[in-house]
Write a structure and sequence with these properties.
The chain is of the alpha/beta class and 303 residues long. It folds into two domains: 1-30 and 172-212; 31-171 and 215-301, Alpha/Beta hydrolase fold, catalytic domain (Rossmann fold, 3-Layer(aba) Sandwich). Helix content is 44%, strand content 17%. It has helices at 2-26, 84-92, 119-133, 146-152, 172-208, 241-250, 268-271, 273-288, 291-301; strands spanning 29-30, 44-49, 55-61, 69-73, 96-100, 105-106, 139-144, 162-166, 228-233, 255-260. An eight-stranded mixed sheet has the order 2-3-5-4-7-8-9-10, with helices on both faces. Helix 1 packs across helix 5 (172-208) and helix 3 (119-133) crosses helix 4 (146-152). The radius of gyration is 20 Å and the shape is globular.
Amino acid sequence: MALIVLCAFVVASLCGTVLIAGLLMSRPVQRVVGPPPPGLASAEEVRIPSKSGTTLSGWWIGGQPGGGCIVLMHGVRRNRLSMARRAELLHQWGFAVLLFDFQAHGASPGRAITFGNLEALDAAAAVGFARQRLPDERLGVIGVSLGGAAALLGPGPRQLEALVLESVFPDLRTALINRLHIYLGPVMGPVLAPVLAPMFRLLMRPVLGVRTPRLRPIDRIADVTAPVLIASGTRDRSTTIEEARTLFQHATDPKQFWAVEGAGHVNLERYNPDAYWRVVLPFITRYVQSPACHEQNRRQTGT
């Protein structure tokens, strides 16, 4: 009898621990974003209705004719401010830019972070908004971590001319195990992470309404017909370089892989801006901008 009680206590404790951890990981991270930073002073405040059930807050910056448009999708527990430097430099190169807050992030309402479940609907809404504003321009997406996963999951976006994925997990199961390893440490992580991760996934649907089998970007990347650039840090413990390469293998041509030497699960543009733009800018310019616009910007910037 005592053994049964002990086992029940252990199971209940583990479930309680997983539930608390899940609620903490999924809690909203809303904040007042404030006005656009000085480099984006011309940005227009926009509101984008999403099928996730919320209205997304964002900034829209117009570009040059033929300059194309880039939609920026931030990572988990971040907001559009983390993409502001990318937006500023892209705007200088003639791109129109849309940056926004996912539901339950920044200034966008939401009950909980859903690890791509609802955020995929937000991604589709943002791309639809950009298409409506510039129906005759080519369109690309830069998605970081959760933002990249959202760009692949759900109903879209699919109709793109270029897609840049930075530090994107191939499936939620491995993402949870990796993060639990980090949180629990080198001693307890290898023991408890494989046990706690499945329990967390089981609790996600009744608690958050999230169906974890759907959260597998690796199953959706082959549907993308646009050229894809996948970037990952060689020291990323949340999404390992091996996992990023596996995601890359499932993508269709044309595709490009960039291993960012020494980087962890960080903002890759901030980690090494010179290297970042040497890789990312030629990729998106080639597929999104018109040759005439690109040549004009090249002459103006002297690059």
